[in-house]
Amino acid sequence: MSESNQPPLDDAEREFLQLVENNALEPELQAFLERRTEFLVLPYLLHHGLLDDVVISQFPLDTSLVTDFTYLTKHSSELRVVFVEIERAGKTLFKTSAPYPTEHSELTAAVAQVKTWAEFLERSRAEVLRRLSPLMRGLSPIPIDFRYVLVIGRDTQLDLDNSLRQRWAKEPIPGMCCVTWDTLLRHYWKQRDQVLHRRAAIQQALEDRLEELLGPDPRGNLWDAADRGDPPVEWLPRERPNVLSLTRERYTFKALHHPPQWLFGRLGPNEFEVSPAHRRMLVDWGYDMDSWDKGILLKGGLTVNGDFRRATSR
Fold first, then answer.
1. Are strands 250-255 and 272-273 parallel, antiparallel or unpaired?
2. How many other C-beta atoms can be found within 10 angstroms of the C-beta atom of residue 79?
3. Could you tell me which residues come within 8 angstroms of residue 231 by beta carbon, excluding any fewer than 6 positions away?
4. Which of 178, 191, 304, 308 lies 20 to 30 Å (CA to CA) from residue 3?
5. Alpha carbon distance 312, 314 (integer Å)
6. Of 84, 3, 17, 41, which is closest to residue 184 (Cα–Cα)?
């Protein structure tokens, strides 16, 4: 489905566009993305996808260095920790009067902030990994790599010149990519197209038209490197990722959008705190939270009276 042939805007798109077009401040953008995490672009994902289907909101590298979002992804031979910085959509990317692509001071300052993260991680890698270690419990020892994502500006600043798009697509520092807020909207559209394609396939199966299931996927090529410099994304989440936060050495849900499949099989009450409201949601989904409170990890996602049951999404 092309951008010129999109269905009518839904409520989430209208809210997103209102924030972006009004140049909303970072706290407003942060709050929206925590509620509607399906808009989050997740570059650098490996084949096993988003670890535990969660992102961490405002993960502290240090008392003075706080990332806007952090997520983990892995395959059998590598674990990546990706740190995300969001900046206002109205910030300028390049100087329009320069004879060649020249970064604007607003872009330079945002990149410099991420560089500060990278420099800190070189000095304090072990301490940051210690804070992340509960989420990595039970994983086989594999190399860990850090990556960075900067969300800033609009596509309109890149439409003027192909050389600007080529410059935009280059990594400002090794392991860092930059995306515009329009990239997030395209990401949302492509996920919606994926859902429509899946529903159509199910309908075809119900109508015994199985031969049509292997038809072309209407999503097309999700990321075209020659388009607007969007980074490649190998995987799209099927659920709206849950959101965690870290407070006083314990993680908790900041937003619980769907039943977590494996999180309570690896983290106990010493590493994770559950609010009363989220506890009621989990109990309604069938999680044996009384056993978990006693330090009994919930095998296979959830355990009720010792029996494995699959969590059912809302």
1. parallel
2. 21
3. 41, 43, 44, 149, 177, 179, 223
4. 178
5. 6
6. 41
Taking only the tens place, the pLDDT of each residue in 224-259 is: 333 444 554 443 445 689 999 998 889 999 999 999
Q: How many CB atoms lie within 10 A of CB 271?
A: 14
Q: How far apart are CA 227 and CA 206, in angstroms?
A: 37
CB within 8 Å of 63: residues ≥ 6 apart: none
Contact call for residues 239 and 50 (beta carbons, < 8 A): no
Closest CA to 3 of 186, 182, 156: 186
- Specify the residue for token string 């407003």: 28
pLDDT tens sequence across 130-188: 999 999 988 888 999 999 999 999 998 887 678 888 888 889 999 999 999 999 998 88
Q: Which of 287, 296, 298, 292 is nearest to 273 (CA)?
A: 292
Dihedral sign of CA atoms 66, 67, 73, 74 in order: negative
